[in-house]
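User: Just a sanity check before I run the rest of the batch. Below are the structure tokens for the first item. I only need the designed sequence back.
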């Protein structure tokens, strides 16, 4: 009886402590907007947000960053937008706020993908010189300047515009690592790319083709011609046909949309097929955990099936940036740009991407 009483009290105390901690953590969650700073000595324009929500994005003058010994300072000519950015802007799925800021975003700067010109180098940097044209990824890229580690950027292929090069880092890297590494696509194998007309999809179709695969792209009717022109051997218009109900079996499914259950996708995988989940869920459909239940479900199912199913998180690195650079230099892969906005039109650009129907990449230019 005493033990029961003790356990009941302990559980109540832990619960109370957790609620108190959550309450304190929420109200003390703060960011640089709340700290008074002097006017920048060496100003540049950058996108800043003090609170979650698209309407809170603004263009402000902040200090030009100074490169550390291993970094290069890059004058950004173009930056591209990814769903990754709107996850941070909206703070969704809600669970991610545990790490990025409960009440307000901890980091008030936005953007990752960029292309530009090296302006200055840190003292350990030997790979680049001022004036080199480069592309890569670094948080805070929606700005006139960004500092990035030299081993995280690559030389821009001369046949690409800055806008094209800026669109590569997240979408191209994800497509490459999804198709080549996680999907392990072999020449002649059949791959289906769900969401073939978006940022990741347009790269994935071309990369899979360059690896000799037989490619099926899934997109809406208005994009079928474009996906075909990228090299897809077959295109399925999802408004007319459900790929999970067809007779065709695929060695690899690269899923950028996650609009079919794992069981449905498994149904159209070959016996040893691989299902690579990249993402899915619109900006207004994230809820508490978004699509994170799916990889968990895949993990639970995996001991009971011959296929491999799982989620992939892309990791940016210089080797793969160079690999993508070579594919683009040789003309095997060409970044597809849907719309270009000015940095000052950041809200319109994000709002367009949040609609979930971009045809290729959405890019920002700095003037
Ligand atoms: N795991 C990672 O490391 C990683 C990296 C990058 C991105 N992601 C995630 O991957 C997803 C895709 O990213 P993205 O940059 O490609 O997004 P995006 O550029 O916004 O592309 C969205 C595409 O989805 C297509 N689509 C919408 N509904 C569809 C449906 N029912 N069936 C087939 N296609 C449909 C749209 O084509 P239509 O206009 O033809 O409908 C559009 O082209 C996002 O959820 C993103 O967060 C994950």
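Assistant: Here's the designed sequence for the first item:
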């Amino acid at each position: 009886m005493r033990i029961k009483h003790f356990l009941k009290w302990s559980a109540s105390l832990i619960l109370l402590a957790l609620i108190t901690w959550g309450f304190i953590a929420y109200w003390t969650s703060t960011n640089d907007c709340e700290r008074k700073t002097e006017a920048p000595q060496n100003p540049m324009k950058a996108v800043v947000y003090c609170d979650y929500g698209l309407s809170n994005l603004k263009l402000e003058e902040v200090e030009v960053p100074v490169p550390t010994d291993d970094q290069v300072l890059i004058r950004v000519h173009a930056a591209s937008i990814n769903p990754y950015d709107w996850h941070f802007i909206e703070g969704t799925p809600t669970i991610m706020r545990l790490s990025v800021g409960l009440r307000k975003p901890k980091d008030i700067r936005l953007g990752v993908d960029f292309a530009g010109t090296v302006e200055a180098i840190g003292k350990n940097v030997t790979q680049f010189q001022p004036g080199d044209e480069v592309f890569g990824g670094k948080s805070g890229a929606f700005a006139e300047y960004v500092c990035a580690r030299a081993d995280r950027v690559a030389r821009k292929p001369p046949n690409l515009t800055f806008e094209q090069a800026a669109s590569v880092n997240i979408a191209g890297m994800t497509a490459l690592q999804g198709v080549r590494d996680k999907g392990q696509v072999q020449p002649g194998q059949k791959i289906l790319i769900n969401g073939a007309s978006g940022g990741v999809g347009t790269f994935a179709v071309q990369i899979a083709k360059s690896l000799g695969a037989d490619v099926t792209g899934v997109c809406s009717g208005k994009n079928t011609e474009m996906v075909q022109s990228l090299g897809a051997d077959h295109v399925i218009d999802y408004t007319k046909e459900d790929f999970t109900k067809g007779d065709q079996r695929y060695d690899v499914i690269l899923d950028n949309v996650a609009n079919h259950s794992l069981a449905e996708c498994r149904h159209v995988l070959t016996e040893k097929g691989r299902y690579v989940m990249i993402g899915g869920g619109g900006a207004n459909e994230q809820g508490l955990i978004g699509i994170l239940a799916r990889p968990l479900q895949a993990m639970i199912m995996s001991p009971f099936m011959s296929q491999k199913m799982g989620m992939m998180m892309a990791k940016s690195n210089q080797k793969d940036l160079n690999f993508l650079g070579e594919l683009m230099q040789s003309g095997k892969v060409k970044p597809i740009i849907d719309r270009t906005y000015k940095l000052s039109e950041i809200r319109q650009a994000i709002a367009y991407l949040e609609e979930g129907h971009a045809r290729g990449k959405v890019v920002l230019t700095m003037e």
